[in-house]
Specification:
The structure is a homodimer.
Chain A (H helix, E strand, L loop, with lengths): L1 H28 L5 H8 L3 H4 L6 H23 L5 H18 L1 H8 L13 H4 L1 H15 L11 H14 L5 H22 L10 H17 L3
Helix pairs in contact in A: 1-2, 4-5, 4-6, 5-6, 5-8, 5-10, 5-11, 8-10, 9-10, 10-11
The structure holds a DNA duplex.
Amino acid sequence: MTAASIRARVRAEMTDEIKTVARRHLATDGANLSLRAVARDLGMASSAVYRYFASRDELLTAMIIDAYDALGGTVEAAVSGTGFPDRFLGVCHAVRDWALANPHEWALIYGSPVPGYQAPTDTVGPAIRVILVIGRIVGEASAAGEVPAGEPIGGRLGDDLRYVAERAAPGTPPQLVARAIAAWIHLCGAVSAELFGQLNNTIEARREFFELQMRGAAAMISRPA
Amino acid sequence: MTAASIRARVRAEMTDEIKTVARRHLATDGANLSLRAVARDLGMASSAVYRYFASRDELLTAMIIDAYDALGGTVEAAVSGTGFPDRFLGVCHAVRDWALANPHEWALIYGSPVPGYQAPTDTVGPAIRVILVIGRIVGEASAAGEVPAGEPIGGRLGDDLRYVAERAAPGTPPQLVARAIAAWIHLCGAVSAELFGQLNNTIEARREFFELQMRGAAAMISRPA
DNA sequence: CCGCCGCAAGAGCAGTGCTCTCTTTTGTGG
DNA sequence: CCACAAAAGAGAGCACTGCTCTTGCGGCGG
């Protein structure tokens, strides 16, 4: 039993080592990760890497999951303060700070998906951590009476939102969940815009502008149209 | 003279043909465009393509410029209606519709930039057409007294915004320009989120949700925090 | 009419993902 | 403790990529 786990542990360590080197390559070279280059850095034949990852896509998927988890963990740990706007703004800055520190990993998870873009089901768990944090903050603010529900939403969208609300933030009004998702999308858009160069030669006071935007997003939640 | 222009015209036609085939490849295979495959489709040697584009990056740059121009032209042509929110919402839907029809080209211009790729200055002109349209709409609404200016913004961000405002939308209050840019970023974020699969298994009533979001963005402009 | 220059073609280099076969290592069950 | 099978690594090889270089062809300008 313990004997069998020796093999497994060595294998896990090797897998981690590969991912570490791959992450380093990702940080320098960008998304076009070369399996052979990683193997060279590890001093092993490229074919040996295939014992651990069936394909380059599988390695990338592992990197994506790790990136989601790193971001999710950072954001979850950053939740603090009291009162709705501050808690939300804290999350926004945590997301932005992580993205600025790990731009290529951000691009990996929130940029354009690579060719086939088949997201395995393993990724959805880590992927939703950030929006779940936002949902929790908004839900708590709603329960505390800090934010109004706003006008109900009907139709198919209403159904979708009810479904999402009861699964992700039970007790939170669906229309509020909609505004939370919109704020999250605005957050991701703002970070991507800054990171992908959409603001180049336009706005240099990035942090201030980001803060302004996210205050607007918070206001959009606190004060529905 | 006419002779010289014959050469030039043939060359331009060949260039267009390459770009057309490249665009087709882009639409099917995604962003990892193969110059050799394009050459094969054209029945020519891969080395011949280099007579027209010095590198794969240069071809991609041309595609990017074309995509920006196609989107910009579509959006400019779609501006209609009267009154601020409707005009803005029309632009939003024009952007989304174009993106849904040309997902890979959207990914090319608003997705993660390809590694090591530096946007040449030729791209900035076409790139800013959409935000200029939004700026014009907001500026006109401001001139017509349809939207308030909101509280002034100081500091470095205020300087940036004043600079942008006087160059892109003279006479429009800088703080309003900030909200216009924020709305544009939210727009891009919403389209990317939908296109890149961030809404998968969550919200199926995409158009309705998009409309809701953009109504929120419009309200953010009409009614500053 | 000739020469020249733009154009195309092909070979070639270095790199890639991935597969196959072969060898070595190594944990493990008896 | 030891033989063995399973796991791991190595290396060659295939098809592909971007890009360069050299060579030949042909239409255009003088």
